[in-house]
Specification:
four-stranded mixed sheet, alpha/beta, globular, Peroxisomal Thiolase, Chain A, domain 1, 2 domains, 11 helices, five-stranded mixed sheet, binds acetyl coenzyme *A
Length: 322
């Protein structure tokens, strides 16, 4: 059952007009192609774990759970503090979650749906009672600020949710759907810094940044998010009419509109904040959940459909009665 949410974003805001001074672009182009107006960007000292810990602490407070009651902290991120240990371990320490297991899971923009699926499994099998699921990214650290095709898209942020045992009232995670296609890894990746291209070689060849084939990623995102949304609805005997709020991954307003169209949902039942935050990858859905609740758009008892797509490719969906 969903117990609480929180979010944290860096204070500094980078507008499209600010970007006009960095690369050859325009506010008009960015708005028309993506729907993004501004994004939050971290200063050099902020770490992913610090941002995630802030979001996690807010979620714990919202849930009325103390950190030592957590059995697990699961973090979706591709921009962890270090290669190892996991960012989840840094967060465990910052929160003082003395009884929690901690691990990261890498599924790019689908990260929060993936970690929440595993949180749900731990809870359903009795391995855990309370799990903190976090999606957090400092994408600004791996963005090539000379590449106008990518640097305009991304932002930094973290979002968190506390999951607990299902109640008797039908509230909780009803179903999840996850899928991947590793044949298309090269369309969206940061190739350097792992075991295939050393960090030194990557720096020399500028491979230590996000590389993306935008139009191909766009097409795959539309197809896959549509598949994820329709599959989970059909499996559960539902249609878009049954859903109170669609919360799609916030990458691009055109992808969001295409996903809504696929499940025949009007845009007034779709949560959108890509204009404010840009694409924050794994953080985008939990940030959206927190904002939707605080804006009164997502209330207790509402049925929400969450849909994501990201590098890998990975994609998925979740049906949640909040
Ligand atoms: N400002 C101005 N012009 C630009 C910019 C920019 N920032 N970026 C690219 N252009 C130019 C290109 O050079 C090209 O010029 P040309 O016609 O002279 O060659 C022209 O604009 C069109 O470029 P396209 O890449 O074809 O533009 P498109 O309409 O596909 O939009 C975009 C690009 C916004 C990146 C789109 O493909 C997209 O959103 N793709 C999905 C990417 C995404 O969301 N990735 C995130 C991870 S996956 C996920 O989260 C879903």
């Amino acid at each position: 059952m969903f117990l609480g949410s929180g979010k944290a974003v860096p204070e500094r805001v980078l507008t499209n007009h600010d970007l006009e001074k960095i690369v050859d672009t325009s506010d008009e182009w960015i708005r028309e192609r993506t729907g993004i107006e501004r994004r939050h960007i971290a200063d050099d000292k902020l770490t992913t774990s610090e941002l995630c810990a802030r979001a996690g602490a807010a979620a714990l407070q919202d849930a009325g759970i103390t950190a030592d009651q957590l059995d697990a902290i699961l973090v979706g991120t591709v921009t962890g503090d270090a290669k190892f240990p996991s960012t989840a371990c840094y967060i465990q320490d910052k929160l003082g979650a003395s009884n929690a297991a901690a691990m990261d899971l890498q599924a790019a923009c689908s990260g929060f749906l993936y970690v929440s699926t595993f949180a749900d499994s731990l809870i359903r099998t009795g391995k855990a009672r309370y799990v903190l699921a976090i999606g957090g990214e400092l994408l600004s650290r791996i963005v090539d600020w000379t590449d106008r095709a990518t640097c305009i898209l991304f932002g930094d942020g973290a979002g968190a949710a506390v999951w607990g045992p299902a109640g008797d009232d039908g509230r909780g995670i009803i179903d999840t759907f996850m899928k991947s296609n590793g044949k298309l890894t090269d369309l969206l990746h940061m190739p350097g810094g792992g075991t295939s291209i050393s960090m030194q070689d990557a720096i020399n060849a500028r491979m230590n940044y996000i590389k993306m084939q935008g139009p191909e990623v766009f097409k795959a995102a539309v197809t896959s998010m549509g598949e994820a949304a329709t599959t989970i609805l059909e499996k559960n005997g539902l249609t878009g009419d049954d859903i109170d709020l669609l919360i799609p991954h916030q990458a691009n307003i055109r992808i969001i509109k295409a996903t809504a169209k696929r499940v025949k949902m009007p845009m007034d039942k779709v949560f959108v904040n890509v204009n404010e935050f840009g694409n924050t990858s794994a953080a985008s859905i939990p940030i959206a959940i927190d904002e939707a609740r605080k804006a009164g758009r997502l209330k207790e008892g509402d049925l929400a459909l969450l849909v994501a797509f990201g590098g890998g490719f990975t994609w998925g969906s979740m049906l949640v009665r909040f």
